[in-house]
Write a structure and sequence with these properties.
single chain, 162 residues, Rossmann fold, 5 helices, globular, binds flavin mononucleotide
Length: 162
């Protein structure tokens, strides 16, 4: 059984790629979240932006984990940034499960130079335990590998791993 669970939503693959890398490096379980809402194309883009700005969520689809979410020592939650907020899919996960998390860490992926780190505090509103580590990454940017590695170092430190 794994101690670390990586949960994420990804619309266009950036967060998916990052979470796959992190889960592999940390030997963590990896689960993708979906809410079943059509989010492709221009219409989907607009819907994502509106959902994020209004903080509206549709119920996430049932997902399978090896054990209940509350039993993992650490849950790493991955989301794209939408309009300066976390994705509504991840918001719904946090609304439902945030209070159950023993320990949390956040990974956000973004498109702009702005790190959007205020998103971490927004996510904490649903997570009474707060976050142990967090990183904001931009695919293809010069600092990507450095900051991803630094995040994994913080997580390993927390877990007491070398
Ligand atoms: C509706 C929408 C709003 C976005 N808003 C922002 C934003 O406010 N700031 C930013 O840096 N990137 C923004 N982005 C870009 C995404 O955060 C970025 O491309 C992310 O890596 C996409 O992750 P994904 O491929 O896992 O879906 C937005 C993307 C979408 C679809």
């Amino acid at each position: 059984m794994k101690d670390v669970l990586c949960m994420y939503y990804s619309r266009t693959g950036n967060t998916k790629k990052t979470m796959e890398e992190i889960a592999q490096a940390l030997d963590a379980e990896l689960v993708e979240l979906q809410d079943g809402v059509p989010r492709s194309g221009v219409g989907g883009w607009l819907r994502c932006g509106l959902d994020a700005m209004r903080r509206t969520t549709k119920p996430i689809r049932p997902f399978k984990t090896e054990r209940p979410v509350r039993e993992y020592r650490l849950v790493i939650v991955g989301s794209p940034v939408w309009a300066g907020r976390c994705s509504s899919v991840v918001r719904d996960f946090l609304k439902r499960y945030g209070k159950d998390l023993q320990n949390a860490a956040y990974v956000i992926t973004r498109g702009s130079e702005d790190r959007n780190e205020e998103v971490f505090e927004q996510m904490d509103l649903y997570v009474p335990c707060g976050h142990r580590a967090a990183v904001s990454l931009r695919s293809g940017s010069v600092g990507y590998a450095f900051w991803e590695e630094e995040f994994m170092r913080q997580v390993r430190d927390f877990l007491g791993q070398k």
